[in-house]
Amino acid sequence: MSVLTSEWLKIRSIRSTSLIIGLSLSAVLLGFGLAVMAAGMYDSAPVDRRPSARISDLEEVVVIVPQLCMGILGTLAMTSEYVTGLIRTSLTIVPRRWPLLGAKAAVVVAAALVIGPTVVFGTYFLSRWVLGDRFSGAYTVAFLDRLPVLATVSLTVPVFALLGLGLGALLRSTPAAISITVGLVYVIPIIIGNIPEPWSERLGSLMIAALPRQITGDGNANSVYGSLLPPVAAAAVLVAYAALPLLVAAWLLRRRDV
Amino acid sequence: MVRRARGPPSRILYGVIELQHLTKRYGGTLAVDDLSFKVEPGHVTGFLGPNGAGKSTTMRLILGLDAPTSGRALVNGRAYTSLRRPMREVGALLDASAVHGGRSAYNHLLSLALTNDIGAARVAEVLAQVGLAGVARKRVGGFSLGMKQRLGIASALLGDPGVLMFDEPVNGLDPDGVRWIRDLMRSLAAEGRTVLLSSHLMSEMALTAERILIVGRGRLIAEATVAELTSRYPSLEDAYMALTAGSVQYGAAR
Ligand SMILES: Nc1ncnc2c1ncn2[C@@H]1O[C@H](COP(=O)(O)OP(=O)(O)OP(=O)(O)O)[C@@H](O)[C@H]1O
Ligand SMILES: [Mg+2]
């Protein structure tokens, strides 16, 4: 408990935290801007072309911003201590070590649990308001029918926070941990989209962005992502992204010299 | 009036550091080699040795930051890593620059204090004690080396511990600060605390410490009182030079 209040103070008392949170929340503005642009394009299109106009789910587009930001927040929670050398003091005063990592995990997850739903639901409601029944009513689907996907997409944000923290603790290097996080979001999906089947779909089903719609049973039509996993397996994979690096890091933290 | 840190009333003020055949190897480097000694309360113990002799490594081993290859280090008869609120028993300053520059001095100290259930009142107290009360809300990144040393000493004092270890705390201090550290070390020891202090400044050490441990290439070279050494040699510096003559690894050609 006392380590938790300490970590809460640590994260609040550095400027990069508010920058990262501000950047995360700006994703709502990005989503709003995309919705306004899409509405403008739709309205200026010839009437006969409108029925075939399609739009991506904007909240699933902009969620990449808080995902990466919270991944970075998680990474920095650990690596900033290695960079400055503060980690030696931190582990001297918490000699069991794992409570330090546990408290950091709790703090970044708490932040991500606020940021993730704020961005996803904020973007959803703004887009719904801006777009109305345009794009064949993409945003007129009943809220309750969209809720499962919106909720699971929101949950990928805390997963990224823990993934970033775990990688930061494992690698003890800000650039290394952030490169891997960014690679998971941007680079690997592109590679996977370009490898032969059946591997493209198999691996595509394991990507983080592919998991929410497998968890809800909606599936990933028209995307590079696969839909091979049953809901429970997809949920397990999502949990593993958060938990595995962190557990390995906790195990190593106890054993490595500082 | 001195208010003590919140905590159990019967705390150990008297502390002992004991090394038993402590050995640490990093790859091919034997940093600490079968080191056994005891540091006892009531006086400042100076920890001397050439660059790379293993002083900092020994301190990290005592604090459980590095695991010994063999042997062990005990604090008050226990392994450091088994202590639940270690700040109340051991205070240490290894590297004064190891702070997050973006945090204020107050928040830095409070974040350390909270982990060991030490309150904000004690943070204000140690800030005043080291003379940083006026800059408590300033970002640490703007501190001079001497101010960071004071901050590091404040963090070691937070838990009002019986055992204190300082790795070259005099580095970067002005003459005023050097004298301040000397008086602080001596008064902490006079209160019955155990103080282990490493430094390369022999004349300063002669004024501060009562007992001296000299290490070279990871091994214990000498263990004596300052009085003994200065009676056998012209000065502590001469004693150090004579005793470490065979152990200097990184010296210029003479
Ligand atoms: N983490 C490490 N990995 C590898 N070698 C190390 C490590 N830490 C220390 N060493 C080596 O161990 C030896 C002892 O180093 P240490 O820093 O303990 O010396 P020191 O007595 O504190 O020296 P100085 O007076 O220069 O501070 C050196 O040869 C050093 O290179
Ligand atoms: Mg050293």
For the record, the count of structural domains of chain A works out to 1
Number of helices of chain A: 12
Structural class of chain A: mainly alpha
Order of helices and strands of chain A: HHHHHHHHHHHH
Characterize the overall form of chain A.
globular
Strand content of chain B: 15-25%
Residue share in helix of chain B: 25-40%
Total DSSP E strands of chain A: 0
Give a list of the ligands: adenosine-5'-triphosphate, magnesium ion
Give the spatial strand order of the biggest sheet of chain B.
6-7-8-3-9-10
The helix count of chain B comes to: 8
Organism (chain A): Nonomuraea phyllanthi
Protein name (chain A): ABC transporter permease
Descriptors for this entry?
heterodimer, A: 258 residues, mainly alpha, B: 254 residues, alpha/beta, six-stranded mixed β-sheet, 8 helices, 24% strand, globular, binds adenosine-5'-triphosphate, binds magnesium ion
Could you explain how this protein is built, in words?
The complex is a heterodimer of chains A (258) and B (254). Chain A is built from 12 helices and no strands. With 258 residues, chain A is an all-alpha fold. Chain A has one domain. In chain A, helix 8 (143-171) packs across helix 9. The longest helix of chain A is centred in the middle third of the chain and has 34 residues, at 98-131. The mean pLDDT of chain A is 95. Chain B is of the alpha/beta class. Chain B has 8 helices and 10 strands. Chain B has helices spanning 55-62, 105-115, 120-129, 145-157, 175-190, 202-208, 226-232, 236-244; strands spanning 17-26, 29-39, 44-48, 70-75, 78-79, 90-93, 163-167, 194-198, 211-216, 219-225. In chain B, the strands form 2 sheets. A 6-stranded mixed sheet of chain B has the order 6-7-8-3-9-10, with helices on both faces. In chain B, a hairpin with a 2-residue loop joins strand 9 and strand 10. In chain B, helix 2 (105-115) packs across helix 3 and helix 3 (120-129) crosses helix 4 (145-157). Magnesium ion (MG) binds at residues 55-56, 167 of chain B.
